Amino acid sequence: MYPGKSNGLPFSKLLHSRSLTPALRRSALVLAFILCFSAPSYGDCDITLRWDDDPPYFMVQEGKVVGIDADLVREAIGRLNCGLSFQKMPWARALRELRDGHVDMLSGAYRTPEREEYAHYSDVVGLVSPNILFIRRSDESRFELNGLRQLLESGFRLGAQIHVSYSEEYSALIQNPDYDKNIEYLSRREPLWLMLARDRVDGVVASELTGL
């Protein structure tokens, strides 16, 4: 498993700048602080959080959206006396909806200059699970796992989500059209695991916790 040069932070929250209340807008650190300190009420507010099936961060149990990120945001927003609704959608669409102000918050967002133009990042809260490369155990001896560039140049077939930034190295590599033939993009992560199991891709990049 190749860990990459710079890993995404699953607990980094991306918040749309227009929809933030004054409390949340205050440098977007409230999600970190709220775990330790009770927050006063800042008036009525309603926050929409994007989610998708992605255990252990988001999943449905007994008709309710739960998981690490779901529970963390629910606790933080509840302490601000704000309302919270969950809206299910693929990642690429979620970024557009956040940019356009139709969704207020995403979790698991890797920090990029482009996203910082229209959204605020919270501090990292709690556990950090790195993005790593998952391959079939039977293929361990087939590839030299020294870096993404070397893998792609060896004919490695990589499965990835549309508009997901896994690391600085990955983001730089996908700008090169020479690697397009080696990368299979899908809107959701779950089908990528099936492609890996069926030998349609050689590896999938994902948060470590989601693949265990």
Tell me, briefly, the overall form.
Answer: globular
Helix content: 25-40%
Cα Rg? 18 Å
Strands of the widest sheet, in order across it, are 8-11-9-10
- Secondary structure class reads alpha/beta
Query: In total, how many beta strands?
Result: 11
Task: Outline the structure in words.
This protein has helices at about 20-25, 30-35, 70-80, 90-100, 115, 150-155, 170-175, 190-195, 210; strands spanning about 15, 45-50, 60, 65, 85-90, 105, 120, 130-135, 160, 185, 205. By secondary structure, it is an alpha/beta fold. The chain has 2 domains: about 15-120, D-Maltodextrin-Binding Protein, domain 2; about 130-210, 3-Layer(aba) Sandwich (D-Maltodextrin-Binding Protein, domain 2). The longest helix has 12 residues, at about 70-80. Mean pLDDT is about 80; it is low at about 1-15 and about 15-40.
Write a short abstract of this structure.
Helices cover 27% and strands 22% of the residues. With 212 residues, it is of the alpha/beta class. α7 links the parallel β9 and β10.
List the helices and strands and how they pair.
Blueprint: E1 13-16, H1 22-25, H2 30-33, E2 46-51, E3 59-61, E4 64-66, H3 68-79, E5 83-88, H4 91-99, E6 105-107, H5 113-116, E7 119-121, E8 131-135, H6 148-153, E9 158-161, H7 168-173, E10 183-186, H8 190-197, E11 203-207, H9 208-211
Parallel strand pairs: 2-5, 9-10, 9-11
Antiparallel strand pairs: 1-6, 1-7, 3-4, 8-11
